[in-house]
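Postdoc handover notes: sequence design on the structure in folder B. Input tokens:
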């Protein structure tokens, strides 16, 4: 097994057009969240009170609130809703966030649920620190004997995308696979690049996708007609499914780091990877 070359980049101030500061608004009891998030169902996924909202070019960031699926609640650091990311009309994706970033309590690893910009399907990611034995490994070079079992198999292995950048724009962070920075506080502009701090500037991310033959890809008109789609009982993998798979992956990666046996995964049996020869293609 060979390590994948690092793609680490220097953290430098953005040279593009000047980003407009996204000023967070407190979520008060009188705030009408449904029109901002797109549906009443989205509001039910944000249990509790308080928090803040920031908006930029059709993308909404919610902080200070948990995110709830049908079977668990995660203490989210950031929750993003991107206008137009999901198909119009009713569906199991209605009300779901388009990105949720949180730190898994059991493993201590950063986790992300992210919606694809083209197919509108969800994917999941777990970031491991530099001292993890699999840091830098290509996902295709990881032996099955290690016991990693996740939906469709691992399909992603990369270092943090571009940083994160010193001046964090909401529209960019809604797509970035990278951990949430500890400073500065919620998207306020930086005066100096050295003001940036992060828990680990070079986390290595492993991920999986839900766009296989046995998955419904809501943004694809032809996906439901693909060969063997009916035989494989294709279905949409919702936020509850993906968050559970992310937590399973985090537990497996934690066990590998600790030199312990990989714990049994939670949830129903996974679809057989061999059913989709394209492996998410």
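Designed sequence:
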């Amino acid at each position: 097994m060979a390590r994948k070359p690092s793609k680490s980049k220097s953290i430098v101030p953005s040279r593009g057009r000047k980003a407009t500061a996204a000023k967070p608004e407190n979520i008060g009891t009188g705030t009408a969240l449904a029109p901002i998030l797109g549906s009443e169902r989205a509001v039910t996924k944000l249990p509790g009170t308080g928090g803040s909202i920031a908006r930029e070019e059709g993308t909404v960031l919610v902080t200070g609130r948990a995110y709830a699926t049908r079977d668990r609640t995660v203490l989210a650091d950031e929750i993003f809703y991107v206008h137009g990311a999901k198909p119009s009309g009713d569906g199991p994706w209605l009300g779901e966030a388009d990105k949720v970033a949180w730190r898994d309590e059991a493993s201590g690893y950063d986790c992300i649920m992210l919606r694809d910009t083209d197919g509108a399907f969800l994917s999941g990611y777990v970031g491991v620190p530099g001292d993890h034995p699999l840091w830098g490994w290509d996902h295709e070079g990881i032996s099955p004997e290690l016991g990693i079992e996740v939906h469709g198999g691992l399909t992603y292995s990369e270092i943090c995308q571009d940083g994160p950048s010193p001046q964090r724009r909401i529209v960019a962070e809604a797509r970035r696979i990278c951990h949430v920075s500890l400073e500065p506080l919620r998207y306020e502009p930086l005066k100096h690049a050295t003001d940036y701090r992060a828990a680990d500037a070079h986390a290595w991310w492993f991920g999986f996708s839900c766009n296989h033959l046995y998955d419904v890809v809501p943004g694809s008109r032809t996906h439901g007609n693909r060969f063997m789609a009916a035989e494989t009982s294709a279905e949409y993998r919702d936020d509850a499914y993906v968050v559970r798979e992310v937590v399973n992956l985090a537990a497996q990666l934690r066990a590998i780091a600790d030199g312990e046996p990989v714990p049994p995964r939670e949830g129903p049996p996974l679809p057989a990877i061999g059913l989709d020869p394209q492996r998410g293609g």
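Context for whoever picks this up: The chain is about 10% helix and 20% strand. Don't rerun without checking with the PI first.
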